[in-house]
Specification:
Length: about 400
């Protein structure tokens, strides 16, 4: 998207605002599927948690994607967006048996990641096919909060507990139709993926009625021009070959599944903010914007470094700025970053704002959440209204204090 188009959107819909480019989502989807073109059955289940706006989900459906979900509400959003239940996989962690049963009744593919629920669910619903999330004990991911496949992680059933799983399957006669892992997010090294995949293949041999193997996600996307990223094409070539060989060995064609979030939507998103104050201190020049970690928490939570451009003055002389928000705690987006000269009232554009940005936004400091806009076929569509004070008060109940 050109700066002029972004500025027009900020003028039309106000600031701060999230903007998503449908063309980028589409090309990322096509890039991923084409990297695995030598596998007959490939299933992409978009991870709804990354960006869950219903219009984005409808775009995913149009592209041919299924959905990966982690809550009943994400499932309901997917159904509302027109997905068939069989194209939705439910991969929760630590939810109640009751929630899993509700989703199973809707017809979604269930993925279970602990022995207790596996046994309870298998005993009550032996006929419902279940996928099992394995913890391969691999340390992967760009930050400890998003490294989820290691030995101390709460996710998945340990590969050392395969005998326990088999005992439950034997006792309940349940049908295990899929095997799954997700080791973390922002994994750069494809050898880590391939290593973990071997563990999954080895595990898969224990289950005779598999229909799919789900390799999760975690592809590293670039955060600026020239930044490192997962080489998806090389990974596709290597894993496809290994997957096809495994299917031969297994004796039946299986579906290769992925559940990408960031890869599909991260780079498609830009977050536009307005500069309220330029504040010169003894050592730093702060650009204080009309947002904070209430709208974009990733820099504070994961140390993520989003690109920041001054689209109001793109040709200006570069200077060093610390870009911060208006929250009553430290909410630094960037420290001493080179940005073209900023004046109060300028619009800054944060890149990689598609994944885990709006979906992690809150009303902290009683601030309203921003609007969301999808640029589809070159046209800007408002896909979520900016919240108002009425939304903040909506569920609050005033009691009569005597
Ligand atoms: C189970 C599972 N699958 C898929 C994803 C998506 O990962 P990413 O956004 O890195 O592609 C996540 C992210 O947290 C996850 O927990």
């Amino acid at each position: 998207m050109q700066n002029s188009q972004l500025l027009d959107i900020a003028a039309d819909f106000g600031s701060p605002v999230y903007i998503y480019d449908a063309d980028i989502i589409t090309s990322q989807y096509q890039r991923l599927t084409s990297a695995f073109k030598s596998v007959d059955q490939v299933k992409i289940n978009y991870a709804v948690k990354a960006l869950s706006n219903i219009s984005v989900l409808k775009l995913m459906k149009q592209l041919g994607s299924g959905l990966d979900t982690v809550s009943l509400q994400e499932v309901q959003l997917g159904l509302a967006a027109g997905f068939d239940a069989e194209n939705i996989i439910f991969t929760p962690n630590g939810v109640s048996l009751q929630e899993i049963e509700t989703v199973a009744e809707l017809g979604c593919q269930i993925n279970i990641d602990n022995l207790s629920i596996l046994e309870q669910f298998g005993t009550k619903h032996p006929k419902t096919p279940v996928c099992i999330r394995i913890n391969p004990h691999v340390m992967a991911g760009g930050n400890t909060n998003i490294s989820v496949g290691h030995i101390d992680s709460k996710f998945g059933i340990s590969i050392h507990q395969i005998p326990h799983i088999l005992r439950i399957v034997e006792n309940t006669k349940m049908n295990i139709n899929g095997i799954h892992m997700h080791t973390g997010s922002d994994i750069l090294d494809i050898d880590v993926f391939l290593y973990a995949s071997e563990i999954l293949f080895e595990t898969a041999k224990n289950f005779k009625s598999l229909e799919f193997i789900d390799f999760g996600s975690g592809f590293k996307v670039p955060y600026s021009a020239g930044d490192i990223e997962t080489n998806i094409e090389e990974f596709g070539e290597k894993l496809s070959k290994r997957f096809n060989d495994f299917c031969e060995e297994y004796g039946k064609p299986l579906t290769l599944a992925f559940e990408p979030g960031k890869f599909l939507v991260s780079e498609a998103g830009q977050f536009l903010v307005n500069v309220n104050v330029v504040k010169q201190t003894t050592s730093t020049v702060f650009a204080q914007v009309d947002s904070g970690f209430n709208h974009l928490i990733r820099p504070m939570l994961y140390g993520s470094q989003h690109g920041i451009r001054n689209i109001s003055n793109p040709e200006g002389r570069e200077r060093f700025y610390s870009v911060v928000g208006y929250i009553c705690e430290t909410d630094t987006f960037a420290n001493n970053k080179r940005i073209s000269e900023i004046n109060e009232g300028d619009i800054l554009a944060f890149s990689n704002a598609g994944a885990y940005c709006y979906s992690m936004a809150s009303n902290y400091n009683s601030r309203c959440r921003p609007a969301e806009v999808l640029v589809y076929n070159g046209e800007a569509h408002l896909i979520r209204k900016r919240e108002t004070f009425e939304d903040i008060l909506h569920n609050q109940i005033e009691i009569d204090l005597k």
